[in-house]
Amino acid sequence: MKMKRLCWGYFLMLFLALPIFQAKATLVKPLKSTYGYSILDLKVKPTTVVDLQINVTQPTCSTPTGTITVVPDASSTGNTYSINGTDYFSSGAFTNIIPGAYIVTVKNALGVITQTTPITVSMPSPPTIALASAMGTDGQSACEDIAIQPITYAVGNSMDAIVTNLPNGVSGKFESGVLTISGTPSEFGYFEYTVTTVSNCNPITTTGTLRIKEATKITLSSAFGTD
Fold first, then answer.
1. Which of 69, 78, 152, 209 is the least crowded, having the fewest Cβ atoms under 10 Å away?
2. Distance CA 68, CA 45 (A)
């Protein structure tokens, strides 16, 4: 009889203690952070990467340096940025970047690092000059005191273009990437003109010719008033 009472008492204690064991089992479950890592997981460096958009503005002959702009995913906060893996900044905009290869590195608030493939800032494309008016206008013959047929050149990757050795009365004007040579020559002769680009890159040139014939002139040779 005494043994039965002991057994019933033992089972009663187990029954009453069961919720306590369940509560303890629940408490030892690792807690999750807002970033999805458990407290135990934080002892190991996370490997999650940050989604990136990288915009590169390449140098030109008018602007010899480029820019790199890092745009992370909108949900990412507390990021710092580097293009050399050593110096990190709160802004992802890097300006005055000389041509070369760079590796963009981002650290988020948890110290998660993501690296891109090298980002290339290229050398500026060289200037270009191409005849845009009709073929032969850059080697035309004209007459003194009569307007020449306008000559136009398309000029690329250059801030300006100048032309030298034109006859008096003829000039060049550069606007929106186009050089226009026009006017009425007031002198005759053979003129080999030169067009030269103006930029931070090495200049390039092209040449053309104008053959200006002397105007036919009639002068009174008899006494004044005979005409």
1. 78
2. 28
Reduce the DSSP state of residue 87 to 3 states and report it. coil
157/197 Cα distance (integer angstroms) = 9
What are the structure tokens assigned to 157, written together? 């990757």
> With contact defined as beta carbons under 8 Å apart, do 162 and 172 qualify?
yes
How far apart are the C-alpha atoms of 206 and 131, rounded to whole Å? 9
Q: Which of helix, strand or coil describes residue 226? A: coil
Structure tokens at 159: 């801030």
| DSSP alpha helix (H) spans, the chain | 2-27
Give the residue carrying structure tokens 């002397």. 214
* Owner of token pair 């005055």: 96
Q: How far is CA 57 from CA 54, 71, 93, in A?
A: 10, 14, 11
